[in-house]
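Input/output pair, single chain:
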Amino acid sequence: MRFLKDLPSHGLTYSDVFLTPSRSDVRSRFDVDLAPGDGTPATLPLVSANMNAVTGRRLAAALARRGGLGILPQDLAVEAGADAVRTVKDAAVMYDDAATLPAEATVADALRQVPATVGFGVVLTDEAGHLRGAVPAERLQGEGAETRLSTLLDQDGPVVDVAQTAGPREVFELMVAEDAEFAPVVDGERVVGSVSRRDALRSTLYRPAVDGQGRLAVGAAIGINGDVAAKARALAEAGADVLVVDTAHGHQEGTLRAVQTVAGLDLGLPIVAGNVVTADGVADLVDAGASIIKVGVGPGAMCTTRMMTAVGRPQFSAVLETAAAAAERGAHVWADGGVRYPRDVALALAAGAASVMIGSWFTGTVEAPGAILRDGSGRAYKENWGMASARAVNDRFGGLSPYEFAKKQLFAEGISSSTIYLDPLRPSVQDLLDMITAGVRSSMTYAGARDLAAFRERAVVGVQSAAGYEEGKALPVSW
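Output:
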């Protein structure tokens, strides 16, 4: 990457910079390879944040099906974390996890799991897990909250049997022929998942992130406290593909010791460590045994670190410096936080990040943990909170003595509750992946780059004013 003019001396955020087009022989977005090449199984440079409100089993599986990597949060107890890893490993590579309910469930029960939107639905099963039928989500619109799902049952729609289906193209064509947007997936009589027409199409275009046994890839965070070695071993034995050793201040002795401990186990897995924003932080963590460094202090939507402490760094500058330092040592960086638009992801990758970690943006999706809630006007949303907030402290340290717990609560930082609305046009994390990767692929074609290594080499970046940034936004209303 190079700047149009000299590198400014002040720190730069993603909104401070832009990419310019270069001469290109890349004719199509589909000629671009987005694999991060950081030693993980990912085929997309997108990672979900290890936050309680962001990454659970379902989102991790959905992300891996399209090539990204979900990182399960560190707050899970050892066995619960290992069980979550095993659940992702057991998930189908092609089909989504079905939202299953008994026939006597109500519309209100269904709307806590799926939005009333085309392409979604609930699958009704009996006590043995056998198929009773399906209710396409659009059928939920306008129905009373207490209406029984059995009265809305669609027993004539298509059913995909894994034993009789050759692949995603065949599933797509079956659903087109049946004029259906949603179908349950069965293995014999037992429900094993669900699929939408768009999901079947995606399966022909994306490469899933899988391990050596063909199972979905997943990462897990272990933090720096407690028995780090025991947790690392348990997660590795459960099948985790990546271990993340991180805390808010990654350039501290406790983090270095934890990384050294995990590296000393010789588990054969990539070790991610952070968070830092300087070349010195990168050097020390790589020397301790990390191969990927997580970069970002304060750019996240739920983070108040910069306003509380003045500590942090504008994210584009942080990624630019740390990525160069990591490359000198044969390591990589993940840009953690601060992305609001696909352009920001492209800029992070141009600055040298191998992957970009996304938090709050993914919270407002169907697959994120927690039930779908609705405000007074009926808009669907999910709750989000920071990992240093009072809410996170309550979850993490509730077992302490009353005195020690009160001390933790007194100095909590971050936002404890935020409403993240589901985008009616993009309610799924897979919808966001479509949008983000479309933008990044186009950025690479403008730069004349067929892969991320070439993008980092060919990208040309300029600095703009706040007015320049605003000029690039589409008008929400007509002239």
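The mean pLDDT is 92. The two ends are 37 Å apart (CA to CA).
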